[in-house]
């Protein structure tokens, strides 16, 4: 039985939700400053007896670039960067995803960016233990920023490259990932980007599913969509065949993930994307003769090409997968509450040690490249005549696309 968890407070999601001076919007791995980002205290109801005087309210400020020092680049792509940052006042660490507005608009990704924020808010709603939490969003004239908890243990791709996982370790990670997918599906979200690279490892040895950019909302049982997206090795056959598909695509990817964790290789291989797609549609995965029967069974049931026959495709969704013999020794309540000792603990030499991230990125100087205009945080309406925006990249109408993006979590 899951614990009673904090309820969703829509007031917490208003643009530029404010917070006490000097304390920015996010905490590393659940460690948020007490009271930061909470809605203003409401006056107590008048009672017959005299109430003690209210504590004075703290001054409020917008969250913005001025709160942070950028320390390192954790990842980089066409979309922008993920940066390690610390707050100037408290030195708390955050991972900040920085996206250029111009790129978002040119690639018709405005709705996708807004959707990513909404999915973060779904993850935030119950502070799910195995989903990456968002502590704030803010924007400048040229960029939007997702301020996320910083997970310093690296991703599972890094760790499997350092050594093959044993059965118990693979089962442990698979169980935690399964509960993350279960929560998403229960909230009408399909993930569509499950892969080792998107599963982060905390210093206490538990996983966090990250990167919600390909998530699709309103995907309840029976709902379908048709967007061609994903990582080639993990894409289900129905996606490749341009068929409409539902949440069963996540269970196919879950099968690929377990296969990779157990065998340190992909079940469907090729020299390029086309060869990988052909293998997904035609080849049968190979299973070593020594592989336990339950492991072979769950992989065969998850890697079933007909989505309606795939394990997890029924109305009970994750419960089908949880009931498989592969997880026979798993106590799901203990997994959810992190009572099972992790099989591995990542190591770092200091809080700012980025050795669990790709040196290709961490060796880059952590700066935001200029995009012609100022870097001040903005509110609406945007004044294009301001001296700080003498050379605006985006028109007023384009800026309006990002109205309401700014946000501070109620627990931050």
TrEMBL record:
Domain (Protein kinase): residue spans on this chain: 68-327
InterPro entries attached to this UniProt entry: AGC-kinase_C, Kinase-like_dom_sf, Pkinase_C, Prot_kinase_dom, Protein_kinase_ATP_BS, Ser/Thr_kinase_AS
Residue ranges of domain AGC-kinase C-terminal in the record: 328-412
Signal peptide: none
UniProt entry keywords in alphabetical sequence: ATP-binding, Kinase, Metal-binding, Nucleotide-binding, Phosphoprotein, Repeat, Serine/threonine-protein kinase, Transferase, Zinc, Zinc-finger
Sites where the protein binds ATP: 97
Annotated Pfam families: Pkinase (PF00069), Pkinase_C (PF00433)
Reaction catalysed by this enzyme: L-seryl-[protein] + ATP = O-phospho-L-seryl-[protein] + ADP + H(+); L-threonyl-[protein] + ATP = O-phospho-L-threonyl-[protein] + ADP + H(+)
Record-listed E.C. numbers: 2.7.11.13
EC class of the enzyme, as a word: transferase
CDD domains membership: STKc_PKC
GO molecular function, one term: protein serine kinase activity
PANTHER family assigned to the protein according to its UniProt record, in alphabetical order: RIBOSOMAL PROTEIN S6 KINASE (PTHR24351)
Protein family (similarity comment): Belongs to the protein kinase superfamily. AGC Ser/Thr protein kinase family. PKC subfamily.
Name of the featured protein: protein kinase C
Higher taxonomy: Eukaryota, Fungi, Dikarya, Ascomycota, Pezizomycotina
